[in-house]
Each structure stands twice: as C-alpha cells, then as structure tokens.
C-alpha cells in the first residue's frame, strides 16, 4: 500500500460523460501532519570502500530533523535534517578523529551537515524519492534519496509514528572531501563513492 496513493475511484457524470475521480483513503489522509525525527530510534550511516578490498561502515550518532507529510499530495511533503559532524563513529577512535579533522569534514569549522528537501514524488508502491540540497562544509549540491515507507503505528506511550528507510550514493569529491593516500599495489586508500543510509522513525506532533 502506498503511503500517499491508496485511493478509491468513483464515477461522476458531467455533461453526459462519466468522469473518474479519486478520493484519498481516510487512513492515509490521517497521516498528514508534521513529524519530528526520533534520534533514539533512527540512524544515519554510511559505507565506503577501504583499501580497495573492504568496506568501512559508520554512523552519525547525533542528528535532528523534521518531516511534513501530505497524505493527499506527496509533492507537498518535505524533510529537513541536521547532522552533527563531531558525532561520527566508525568504531575506531583514531579514524573518527581523522574524519573530524581538516583532511575530511573539519568539524570544528563546519559542525553541521544539512539536508533540505525541494521535491518529493512517488516512484511506485511504497517507494518515494526526496530530492533536495545537501550541504557539507561550505559546499551545497543536489541529492536524491530513495525511501521506502515502512508503515505507521502508535507506540506504547501514545505517540503516532511513521517509519522510512532508504539510501543514496554520492561522490565525496563533489563536496570537497578529497583526501586520499596511494596504495603500493595500486589504487587508493578511500573510495570516492560513498553510500548513505537512512533509517528514520518520526513522531507526529500535536
């Protein structure tokens, strides 16, 4: 079932001709509203090839954001996310320190990575594409994130929640993250291509 698209079809007669009209499912329309991302039950991570042969996985432990969902018109939905760069965690303290340094993110000078959506549309079924602007350091470039709607539920504390998960691929060099080291056997230490992953749980606001 699509979040924004489960509708019933009725036929109206206009000027002697039958015209199909769509009615939004009330259950889906009820999801319309403003949501705050729950960082305790959400994750924003990344995967990057290391030394040409293995993958390094990491996440940003501190982030906040908001969603606006429109159950009748997905194009009016929006997302905003702020990620604290200093919270990067790959499981190795020295590597995390290098990522925070001027070689990579320069977390002291540029403490936040931000995403602001500009467009939302359905790709099919429960899959949607959110397009917007990703800012890392002082570079802002377009980014599209493909998301799958995982459903909605009321938790034991009475909070209305929605869930999404998705991913996107970027070239880190597009945002000025160009540090690397050559390997003796050929190739480089860190891949330019990075996969971003999103697992989002958001709580509806009153």
Architecture overview:
The protein is mainly beta and 206 residues long. It is built from 2 helices and 13 strands, in the order E-E-H-E-E-E-E-E-E-H-E-E-E-E-E. Strands 3-6-7-9-10-11-12-13 form an 8-stranded antiparallel beta barrel. The longest helix is centred in the middle third of the chain and has 8 residues, at 93-100.
Overall pLDDT metric: 89
What ranges have pLDDT less than 50 throughout 5 or more consecutive residues? 1-13, 17-22
Tally of extended strands? Answer: 13
Rg (C-alpha, Å): 21 Å
Count every helix, treating DSSP H or I runs of 4 or more residues as helices: 2
Order of SSEs, N→C? EEHEEEEEEHEEEEE
- How are the strands of the largest sheet arranged? 3-6-7-9-10-11-12-13
Any idea what the shape is? elongated
Helix fraction, binned, reads under 10%
Class based on secondary structure composition and strand pairing? mainly beta
Strand content: over 45%
Main sheet characteristics: 8 strands, antiparallel, barrel
Q: Whole-Å distance between the termini? A: 25 Å
Topology:
Blueprint: E1 7-14, E2 17-24, H1 26-29, E3 33-37, E4 43-50, E5 54-60, E6 63-69, E7 78-84, E8 88-89, H2 93-100, E9 112-124, E10 127-136, E11 139-154, E12 160-171, E13 190-204
Q: What are the key terms here?
A:
206 residues, mainly beta, 8-stranded antiparallel β-barrel, two-stranded antiparallel ribbon, 2 helices, elongated
Question: What's this, in brief?
Answer:
With 206 residues, the chain is mainly β. 6% of the residues lie in helices and 57% in strands.
């Amino acid at each position: 079932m699509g979040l924004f698209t489960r509708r019933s079809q009725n036929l109206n007669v206009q000027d002697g001709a039958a015209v199909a009209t769509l009615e939004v499912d009330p259950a889906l329309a009820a999801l319309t509203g403003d949501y705050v991302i729950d960082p305790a039950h959400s994750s924003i991570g990344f995967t990057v090839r290391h030394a040409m042969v293995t993958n390094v996985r990491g996440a940003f432990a501190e982030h906040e954001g908001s969603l606006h969902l429109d159950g009748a018109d997905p194009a009016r939905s929006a997302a905003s996310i702020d990620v604290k760069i200093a919270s990067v965690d790959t499981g190795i303290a020295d590597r995390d320190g290098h990522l925070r340094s001027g070689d990579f993110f320069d977390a002291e000078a540029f403490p936040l990575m931000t995403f602001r959506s500009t467009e939302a549309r359905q790709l099919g079924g429960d899959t949607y594409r959110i397009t917007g602007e990703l800012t890392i350091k002082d570079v802002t470039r377009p980014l599209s994130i493909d998301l799958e709607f995982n459903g909605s539920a009321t938790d034991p504390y009475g909070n209305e929640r929605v869930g999404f998960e998705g991913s996107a691929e970027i070239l880190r060099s597009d945002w000025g993250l160009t540090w690397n080291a050559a390997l003796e056997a050929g190739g480089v230490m860190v891949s330019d291509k990075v996969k971003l992953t999103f697992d989002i749980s958001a709580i509806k606001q009153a």
